[in-house]
Specification:
144 residues, 5 helices, single chain, mainly alpha, two-stranded antiparallel sheet
C-alpha cells in the first residue's frame, strides 16, 4: 500500500532514497534547533504536566473500576499479572518475556494486540502515554 508523506511516496518498505530524504530534512531541522535553541513556554509546560497528572489519576480510577483491582499502571509486573493471569488475555498465545524473564512484557508494542480484548488495556496504554509525556518531556524540560 502506498502512502504520500511530505511529498515522499511510502510503501511497505521505503526506498533508500525516500529514507535519506526524510532523514536529511529532519537533520536540517535538528541542526537549526541546536544552533538557535528553543523557546519554551514554561507556564504552558507546567499546565500540560498538571493536566497529565490529572488525567493519569482519572485513568487510574477508570482502570480500578474496569477490572475491580487497584494497581499501579506503571508496574510491568502488576499489569502483566492483571492482563495475563487475572483476565486471561492472550491465552494460548506465546508472549514476549521481559529481559529478566520474570514476567510477560507489557511495553506498548507488546500490549497493542490486546487493545480490543478488554476495556482495561486501552486505559493502561493511555496512562502510560501520559506518564511518558510527563516524566520524559514535560518536567525535565522545566527543570533545565
Amino acid at each position: 500500500m502506498n502512502r504520500l508523506y511530505g511529498g515522499v511516496v511510502m510503501v511497505d518498505r521505503p526506498a533508500p532514497a525516500n529514507v535519506a530524504r526524510l532523514d536529511h530534512n529532519a537533520a536540517k531541522s535538528i541542526y537549526r534547533m541546536m544552533r538557535n535553541g528553543l523557546a519554551l513556554d514554561i507556564p504552558r509546560l507546567r499546565a500540560v504536566g498538571e493536566r497529565c497528572r490529572r488525567e493519569k489519576l482519572d485513568l487510574e480510577r477508570q482502570i480500578e473500576s474496569a477490572c475491580g483491582v487497584k494497581l499501579n499502571p506503571g508496574s510491568g509486573k502488576q499489569v502483566a499479572q492483571l492482563l495475563f493471569q487475572t483476565l486471561g488475555l492472550g491465552a494460548g498465545k506465546q508472549k514476549k518475556m521481559t529481559k529478566s524473564g520474570a514476567w510477560e512484557s507489557t511495553n506498548a508494542i507488546d500490549i497493542e494486540p490486546y487493545l480490543c480484548e478488554h476495556p482495561v488495556v486501552p486505559l493502561v496504554y493511555e496512562w502510560r502515554e501520559r506518564d511518558k509525556l510527563e516524566t520524559t518531556y514535560v518536567w525535565p524540560l522545566i527543570e533545565k
